[in-house]
Design goal:
The chain contains six helices and ten strands, in the order E-E-E-H-H-H-E-E-E-E-E-E-H-H-H-E. By secondary structure, the chain is of the alpha+beta class. The chain has one domain: 4-Layer Sandwich (Phosphatase 2c, domain 1), CATH 3.60.40.10. Strand 4 (about 150-155) and strand 5 (about 160-165) form a beta hairpin. Helix 1 runs antiparallel to helix 2 and helix 5 packs antiparallel against helix 6 (about 255-275). It is globular.
């Protein structure tokens, strides 16, 4: 088995976004079950971020593959959606269509992920046996590949985000003083180790989503992480303080300086949680330049679909 996929992108062109990413394996583990991606889209006018956490137990012994495919399939679907978000821009008349398309995206990702699993398992069955022609679907145990998924599409006008299972997505208002973190997809404290997963029937029905337009100021900092990071803190406020600290350091020292230290921070976190730990983020580096007057009458508060 291979380890996690490398981040799908790096520094965005044209200086519009700075991207941050790192992943480390849990203490004592042979390899990480986490995967992540950070990709610039549409000549740097949008970014696609994603993290996925394979379940990793004995019953999920191919979940490193499941998390990798979750990242790849979300990125493939979200890239086209991001281009459409850029095209619509600040024209509020097009936002209804964007939200409808965003509601369809989780099902598209889940179907593509399932097809990847079935194709792989047909050729290399996790059961060790052989699939009969036309029977791969019935014979495949999807739980072997189980994974969570968090993804986001960020432009200079708005952010869309989705989450299935545990982990954290944090929006930090870059213009606010002090920086204020928001967790729009949080469902509260996790109860035990059970989590929603792509391996479940119709997982898109459990995927949480959020969208938020911005009409003034800079876009928020968007930070995604697997639960190995938040579990390393004594309480969730400690994790939010970490997210705020990353934002403040990026503002004061620059994103490259934070990137240089990020893996060390995650290594220390992994020693406390014992889990694989992955973190990605996007920071706007320039102010928006497009005329957004048509959007100024719209509410800026995020809306759940």
């Amino acid at each position: 088995m291979s380890g996690p996929s490398a981040p799908a992108g790096s520094q965005a062109p044209e200086g519009r976004w700075a991207l941050l990413s790192a992943t480390v394996k849990g203490v004592g583990k042979k390899y990480s079950q986490d995967s992540c991606g950070a990709l610039s889209v549409a000549q740097g006018r949008a970014v696609v971020l994603t993290v996925a956490d394979g379940h990793g137990s004995a019953a999920h012994f191919r979940s490193d593959l499941g998390s990798r495919w979750a990242v790849e399939e979300f990125t493939a679907c979200a890239e086209g959606f991001a281009r459409e978000v850029v095209r619509v821009g600040a024209d509020a008349t097009g936002w209804t269509g964007l939200r409808a398309e965003a509601r369809r995206l989780p099902q598209q990702v889940a179907h593509r992920w399932r097809e990847r699993v079935l194709l792989y398992d047909c050729n290399s069955p996790a059961s060790g046996g052989r699939h009969l022609p036309g029977r791969a679907d019935e014979a495949t145990d999807l739980a072997v590949y189980g994974s969570t998924l968090i993804g986001a599409v960020l432009t200079e006008q708005m952010v869309f985000c989705w989450q299935l299972g545990d982990g954290d997505l944090v929006l930090v208002e870059a213009d606010a003083t002090p920086h204020t973190p928001h967790i729009p997809l949080s469902t509260g404290p996790e109860m035990g180790d059970e989590t929603d997963s792509l391996c479940e029937p119709e997982p898109w029905r459990k995927m949480r989503s959020h969208w938020q337009p911005f009409t003034t100021g800079a876009p928020p900092v968007v930070l995604l992480s697997t639960d190995g990071l938040s579990k390393s803190f004594a309480d969730h406020q400690g994790f939010l303080d970490f997210a705020t600290g990353v934002t403040e350091r990026a503002a004061g020292q620059g994103v490259p300086a934070v990137q240089a230290q990020l893996a060390d921070w995650l290594e220390r976190a992994a020693k406390y949680s014992g889990d694989d730990t992955t973190f990605v983020g996007a920071f706007a580096t320039t102010a928006r330049t497009e005329n957004e007057s048509s959007a100024e009458q719209e509410a800026e508060k995020g809306t759940a679909w």
